[in-house]
Amino acid sequence: MKFQSQKVAWGFFATCMLLLSLQLIYGFIMGFAHAGYDGLHQWIPFNTARATHTNLLVMWLLAGFMGAAYWIIPDECDRELAWPRLAWVQLIALVVVGVTAIIGFHLNWWEGRKFLEIPRPLDFLVVVDVLLFVGNIGWTVWKADKKSTTSMVLFFGLLAAALLYLPGMIPTDNQTVDSFWRWWVVHLWVEGVWELIMGAILSYLLIKLTGVDREIIEKWLYVIVGFTFLSGVLGTGHHYYYIGTPRYWLMVGGIFSALEPLAFLGMAIYAFAMAKKGGRTHPNRVALLWTVGCAFMSFVGAGFLGFAHTLPQVNMYTHGTLVTAMHGHMAFWGAYAMLVLAIMAYALPIMTGRKVYEGATAGFAFWTSNIGMTAMTLAFAVAGVSQVVLERRAGMDFLTVQKEIEIHFWGLILAACLFTLGICAFIYDFIRYGLPTAPLRSGEARSVTPPEILPTAAAARGAV
Amino acid sequence: MGGALGTKAEERRGMLSKSAAKAFFLGGTAVTASVFLALTWDTFQQIPGRTNASALTEGVKRGKHLWESNNCMGCHTLFGEGAYYAPELTKVHERRGPAFIRAMLKDPQAMFPGQRQMTNYHFKDEEIEDLVAFFEWVGKVDLNGFPAKPNLGAPAQRAQVAGSTGHAPEVFGQVCTTCHSLQGAGGTVGPALDGVGDRLDAAYLEKWLRDPMSVKPGTTMPKLPLDDAQLGALVTFLSSQKLTKEVAQ
Ligand code: HEM
Ligand code: HEM
Ligand SMILES: [Fe+2]
């Protein structure tokens, strides 16, 4: 660790671990409810469990991105954070808002729009909190002498994510309009600006872990995010097929969203190629495993499984079934959960000066969680495809079909146990790493890349 | 990136330079974003017509608010968006009808005894009317054909019930057939009602329908919200269900 202020990242990472654990508990509650055991219904009805599960997910991913940014930006900009203490305040505020929202969900206080359930007054607090974060990062980048492409892409990705939260707050009485704006947040996040964040963090990790020349890595970063926006922006149309919007979206959304997997394929090829090209073997092999694994699993979950139901002819029958849940799990896991775990796997040893990655649990955590998630995806897939065939195509009653597919939720629960075991191993290692130490104490600090060819400030400002 | 560095990099690394990559990113984004904004503008011109925005009454708006403030989308889907735990509700007004929706919202447990549970919100009658109005409006939005009609095997059972009981009161087809069958079509929660007119007389039927619990404590047949006109029509209809007559025909 080069800078004192990078320590704040640890606080965000610890928050991630805590929220992830809670998220899994609510996942199990829903798994059992689907399998026919909704004994908690009186206290935690399904809609509460669901809102809690997905909002905890989004919250810990955002906390992870913030932690990653507080770690990467000082390193890339070669200076301390602008306001380290503000970063701590902003973390605490985020947790307080999050906990309030979660308690609200248990008291029937929410907005009731999928993924945007947080009640309106708290929405404003989230926006303020994120703006404080973006301000802190932005000011650090602004004051820096060197502005690397990686740091600029990361900064603009985070800024755009904050701004795209706003359309979700436009009030309307029309359900179609409501749904239209909701996708500006949900889709343009995960298939747009979050991919900028992902690309930047992966680039940073690949630069550090493979030792490949920064110029090459950053060049391909531009190509990949270029493909992302070229396909992903108009690809929003794959959510505008059947919500009351004009028919031309079937064509526009179908064509452009079918191209989206290219960006994910590019990301996977890029990570594999750089890892292979890298002459230097960094001692932290597990961090590289998470990095390359993230690029690969995001292609499977988002690219391949996304494509599987994105054409309008297919989506007509799969829209709003468990097929979507299948895709949602693998995509979020591969692209964003693994990304946050990758930066943690890289940063923690440097932050704490301990080399826990040498132990057996580190590899165990990676393989067990990934095999578990793959099995969960399969369970959702079998349940989802059965639902589509029986309910949507053969016209059987909803509840009759749900009875029919209960068995697959026992499969889901078994797979989820395996997955949870992997996550427990990761958290166990996190605890073993302990608290961050003072800068420059560990041997790792020496492996910081040598001074690189860096663009001039003026050129980089126009970069993104 | 910077001019001098960029050209040097170009020379060293062949065809694609970093500055060309950056131009591709910025140019591509600018073009797609512009097209997207133009289509968004056009979509907003068309939405009022496609969604019958003129039929957005105060009741529908209140219904939408109830839908959101209780997070019904956390169990159900609407327009195919939401959770996968409870039935898709876009066409519920057409599929089940208002009488069924009223009964369901009054006491969800009663309608599906022993099944997956829905929360009982203890709605007031006006609130139930608002939700019914909301579902009616939602069902008429032009969704480009969603949800598609099932295209495999036999058509849904419900359609057959409607056909065979054409002369039955509307509420019978909407509510009673969820649990009872007639001429082999309908639900299986309660006994089949073929020949019920042979078994039970009108006075008993009326008492039963007013409050099944008072006749047979502990029964799973719910007390349904029926007004006097509906009750009268049902008793007449049920009394006419005589197997002897059917055989004669
Ligand atoms: C990392 C990137 C991605 C993530 C995290 C992700 C996640 C999700 C989630 C959570 C949903 C459900 C959203 C809701 O109903 O509110 C969804 C829906 C959908 N996704 Fe993705 N996705 C990603 C990328 C993709 C890609 C690249 C494609 C296409 C190739 C795709 C195609 C779809 C489609 C068609 C739906 C709508 C499903 C329906 O009609 O019910 N996704 N995605
Ligand atoms: C213990 C493990 C887990 C279990 C048992 C589980 C189970 C479930 C269930 C049953 C649903 C609800 C589907 C419905 O609406 O009926 C759900 C939703 C969801 N979960 Fe999980 N989950 C687990 C872990 C995760 C993880 C690790 C992630 C992210 C990386 C995740 C992301 C999601 C998302 C995005 C949704 C919404 C999907 C959609 O709307 O299509 N879950 N989960
Ligand atoms: Fe999407």
Task: Describe, in plain words, how this protein is organized in 3D.
With 464 residues, chain A is mostly helical. Chain A has 15 helices and no strands. In chain A, 74% of the residues lie in helices and 0% in strands. Residues 441-464 of chain A have low confidence and may be disordered. Among the domains of chain B are: 57-139, Cytochrome c-like domain (Cytochrome Bc1 Complex, Chain D, domain 2); 170-239, Cytochrome c-like domain (Cytochrome Bc1 Complex, Chain D, domain 2, Orthogonal Bundle). Chain B is 55% helix and 3% strand. Chain B is built from 14 helices and 4 strands. Chain B has helices spanning 3-13, 18-50, 58-69, 92-95, 98-106, 108-111, 125-139, 157-164, 170-174, 196-199, 202-210, 212-215, 228-239, 243-248; strands spanning 77-78, 81-82, 181-182, 185-186. In chain B, strands 1-2 form a two-stranded antiparallel sheet. In chain B, strand 3 and strand 4 form a beta hairpin. Chain B starts with a helix and ends with a helix. Bound molecules: protoporphyrin IX containing FE (2 copies) and fe (ii) ion.
Return the structural class of chain A. Answer: mainly alpha
CATH top level of chain A is: Mainly Alpha
CATH superfamily of chain A: Cytochrome c oxidase-like, subunit I domain
Rounded to an integer, what's the Rg of chain B over CA atoms? 28 Å
In short:
The complex is a heterodimer of chains A (464) and B (249). Chain A is an all-alpha fold and 464 residues long.
Task: Write the SSE topology.
The complex is a heterodimer of chains A (464) and B (249).
Chain A (H helix, E strand, L loop, with lengths): L7 H27 L11 H32 L6 H23 L13 H24 L5 H15 L11 H36 L3 H22 L12 H30 L7 H24 L3 H7 L3 H31 L7 H34 L4 H7 L1 H28 L23 H5 L3
Helix pairs in contact in A: 1-2, 1-3, 1-14, 2-3, 2-4, 2-5, 2-11, 3-4, 4-5, 5-6, 6-7, 6-8, 6-9, 6-11, 7-8, 8-9, 9-11, 11-12, 12-14
Chain B lengths: L2 H11 L4 H33 L7 H12 L7 E2 L2 E2 L9 H4 L2 H9 L1 H4 L13 H15 L17 H8 L5 H5 L6 E2 L2 E2 L9 H4 L2 H9 L1 H4 L12 H12 L3 H6 L1
Antiparallel strand pairs in B: 1-2, 3-4
Helix pairs in contact in B: 3-7, 5-7, 11-13
Fe (ii) ion (FE2) binds next to helix 6 of chain A.
